[in-house]
Amino acid sequence: MTHLSYEVFHKDVPTLVEFYVRVLGFRAPEESKSSEVSETSAPLEYVVVRRGDVRVGCCRHDEADPTPRRPPGGSEIVLRVDDVRAEHARVVSSGWPLADALRTRPWGLTDFRVFDPAGQYLRITSATAEG
């Protein structure tokens, strides 16, 4: 059995966690539910958020470049979901900008794309062809 896990790097871990939890519906571990970090406490270094079998490690790195990267200059991370229209509505209602609008592709899947705060290009796509 294989499960997907990937890591993203950003200067501010709470920003990454907030995106994955609020915009994409991931769950944060209980101890990191609050994204507030006081000015006197140490910054968060690493938090894993989960959704189904997908795990994303949100890693602090002061030199991370958050510039959006489309293929072929970057990777396209594909999240297959049961209800792509509901996912699209969640992202739109969150106010997060879309990189590419919701549309049905010639191969029959419907998708849209966003950049996360670390500049990762994410394609949220239907699990099966519509029709």
Question: Could you characterize the architecture of this molecule?
Answer:
With 131 residues, this protein is α/β, with parallel strands linked by helices. The chain has two domains: 56 residues, 2,3-Dihydroxybiphenyl 1,2-Dioxygenase, domain 1 (Roll), CATH 3.10.180; 51 residues, 2-Layer Sandwich (Signal recognition particle alu RNA binding heterodimer, srp9/1). Helices cover 17% and strands 32% of the residues. It is built from two helices and seven strands; from the N terminus they run βαβββαβββ. A four-stranded mixed β-sheet has the order 4-7-6-5. A three-stranded mixed β-sheet has the order 1-3-2, covered by helices on one side. The longest helix has 11 residues. The protein is globular and about 50 Å long.
